[in-house]
Structures are given as C-alpha cells and as structure tokens.
Amino acid sequence: PKLTPTWVGQLPIGSIDRFLVMEQHHADALQNQFGISADRVSLLGSFDPKQRGDEIPDPYFSYSEEVYRSSYCLIRDCIIEYLDKK
Description:
By secondary structure, the protein is mainly alpha-helical. 37% of the residues lie in helices and 7% in strands. The chain has a two-stranded parallel ribbon. Strand 1, helix 1 and strand 2 (41-43) form a beta-alpha-beta unit.
C-alpha cells in the first residue's frame, strides 16, 4: 500500500478518461481548479447497487477501523458496479 497520497496536479490529467470521486466538492475542484470537463467526473456513490447515496464520506479523519471497513465495502461495491456497467 502507498503511504502518501498523489496530488491531482501530478497525474497525467489529459490521459485520464474518467475521474471517480467520493464527494461533490472533489468533483467541483477537478472542474474549477484543473479544467476537467463535467462529463469526465462522476460521483462514485452514483454507481452504488444498493443506492446508499451519491456521495461517500471520506473516512480520513476517523480512527475507527469499523468506519474504514464500512467505507471500503461501499467503495468496493461502487467500483464493481461501475466496471460491470462499462
């Protein structure tokens, strides 16, 4: 596992077809600060097969293993659904 995050500005933005983000303010930042068109950005939760909401709260500031486990399961479900629909 990688221990440090990758800053968006370090990514090859032009070669990325789809950005999957957890929260709306992440989508807004990609569009406003990096000029990424809205059609290339999706809220990951919109692919949730159980429809638990379009946004996925970032558990970064939580120290609870249960919170991380719950977020992981939700993210996993959404990514599987996204890939199945591709």
